[in-house]
Amino acid sequence: MKARHIILCVICIIAVAMGILFFCALEKHNGQLAKIARLPDVALITVDGNEFNLSELRPERKVVLLFFSPDCEFCRKELKGILSHRGKFDGVDWIFVTISPIEELMNFLSEYPLDSILGAKVCLEDSPELFMAFDVTSPPSIFIYDADGTLEHYKRGAVSIRTILEWNR
Fold first, then answer.
1. Is-contact 63 42, C-beta < 8 A?
2. What are the residues whose beta carbons fall under 8 Å from the beta carbon of 48, sequence distance 6 or more?
3. Rounded-to-integer distance, Cα 159 and Cα 168, Å
4. What are 154's strand-pairing partners?
């Protein structure tokens, strides 16, 4: 009988601890989303060395931020799909962001010409600030903002081109 009470107490303690951990994780997630609910006012450097601010993008256009790494197979598959459907993204400003070295990126762009997409900018992030702001721990990650700069869709991890096309409607 006494052992049964001890087991019940242990189970209750574990359940309460798990509830607290879940609540803390949910609060962190919601706080992170609140930071990026609107397109942030962030300066980026394009691959050709020009600086621009996300707030300077053309109004009335969707903005897609895609964090990638040239050596990521999931990124390559996702980017290949985007390149093959580039004509279906009128009214979209693509911002491709990587923290990879410039040499690696330039080799990658010769195979995946992301800068050939109308309205696209390929950016180098020399510090992990932007990745941290968007809680990107490993690419690919995609964030789609509507024409008013409000976050519509996001996914950390690979996304099919079909899903990206659906989100673009």
1. no
2. none
3. 13
4. 143
pTM of the model: 0.77
Query: Distance (Å, rounded) from C-alpha 39 to C-alpha 146?
Result: 9
Asked whether 93 and 64 are in contact (CB, 8 A), the reply is yes
Which pLDDT score, from 0 to 100, does residue 22 have? 57
Output the 3-class SS for the chain: CHHHHHHHHHHHHHHHHHHHHHHHHHHHHHHHHHHHCECCCCEEEECCCCEEEHHHCCCCCEEEEEECCCCCHHHHHHHHHHHHCHHHCCCEEEEEEECCCHHHHHHHHHHCCHHHCCCEEEEECCCCHHHHHCCCCCCCEEEEECCCCEEEEEEECCCCHHHHHHHCC
- Give tens-digit pLDDT for 69-80: 999 999 999 999
β-bridge mates for residue 156, sequence order? 141
Closest-CA residue to 85 (of 11, 1, 13, 163) = 163
